[in-house]
Amino acid sequence: MYPHSSLTAEQRLAAVDLFEEGFGHVAVSSRLGVSAGAVEKLGERFRIWGRAALEGKPTKQVYSFEFKLELVRRYLSGEATAMDLALKHQLNSPAQVRNWAKIYREQGEDGLRPKPKGRPRAASSPEPTELTELEKLRRENQRLQAENAYLKKVRALRNHPPR
């Protein structure tokens, strides 16, 4: 379900039962003896999704740039709280709106734009251009010089007795 949650499946179920009875996240966390932060996050999801908060979602929801920008502007202007926006638009949690607002403050509108997936393409190597006759001769000369130096080294090692 939620792999990063510190609550077990039984604790989440008990917490949701207590939420339905009207208990707040602090009372639920003290009754179950678990982290108040984890219970608070579960409580926020419960307020949005009800019992469906116990079920994991098969895929990650992707939101458009315009949608995120509109919600962030409404949140930052004070028109609505993160919880109100999450409830109205059925987001996973109000933390999503707060996270988008943080990115917007730090990076501006471009931070909310979709990012390309995967590793960036390597810079393509330049097209092999036709070498001039002079360049061909220079490269051949360099190769022959390296070969000559190698053969001299081998000959010197053969003629030199081992120590």
TrEMBL record:
It comes from the Bacteria. Pfam families: HTH_28. Residues 67-121 form the Insertion element IS150 protein InsJ-like helix-turn-helix domain. Signal peptide: none annotated. Residues 106-137 are annotated as: Disordered. InterPro entries: Homeodomain-like_sf, InsJ-like_HTH, IS150/IS1296_orfA-like, WH-like_DNA-bd_sf. Belongs to the IS150/IS1296 orfA family. This is Transposase-like protein. It comes from Paeniglutamicibacter kerguelensis. The lineage of its organism: Bacteria, Bacillati, Actinomycetota, Actinomycetes, Micrococcales.
